Amino acid sequence: MVAEKITQCMKPHGEEGIETIENMNENHKEISKFAFSLIQVDSGDKILDIGCGGGVNIEKFLKLTSGNVDGLDYSEVSVAESIKRNQKAVDEGRCEVMHADVSSMPIEDESYDIVSAFETVYFWPDIKETFKEVSRIIKPDGQFMIAQGTDGNHPDDEKWLSSVEGMHLYTAPELEKYLLDAGFKKVKSQVKKNDYILVVIAQK
After folding, report:
1. Domains and CATH numbers, the chain
2. Where are the alpha helices (DSSP H) in 28-137?
3. Virtual CA dihedral for 29, 34, 40, 43, nearest 10 degrees?
4. pLDDT by residue (tens digit) across 67-126?
5. Which end of the chain has fewer CB within 10 Å, C or N?
6. Which residue, 40, 57, 50, 62, is CA-closest to 188?
7. Burial, 101: exposed, middle or buried (Cβ in 10 Å; 0-12, 13-18, 19+)?
């Protein structure tokens, strides 16, 4: 049962996928709240949320910028739910939600000021190369924010790792090294005490 739920988190699908997205929207509130307290968003920033799930964080970003806020997910259910949640912005041309894989994004170089990834890098393939792909689409001096529910030291980490094939947990030092190797200039990490929530912000 746990493995199935984690599989749904990796790529929500079917009716159960919609239920999973609703649960994620609720269960990730504290992670999102902490991350948004750490990121500087300017009024005209163009933003992309990778692994956008149910579109909650797209919705939050839309309130912070007059620029476009887009989403990307390789789950068709997630794309549909994100569009539904942000239908007004989609209709106004302020939001596009793409069905695509993070390892090969149909996006031009240096397109975004901020790229975010909430509770998703656990499932990214070849993270070193994927971080290079993310770096490619970020403007000079732009930011890439990763938010995780664990800093790699959570007591339940081993349980989750044993429950699903293909899930990887990363510590702050590991992410910092991969990001610097991918071409980011500066990387700063912060852990929320007692909650194990990790937010890493890299500057291009």
Report:
1. 2-203 (3.40.50.150)
2. 29-36, 56-62, 76-85, 87-91, 127-137
3. 30
4. 999 999 988 888 998 999 999 999 999 999 999 999 999 999 999 999 999 989 988 989
5. N
6. 40
7. middle
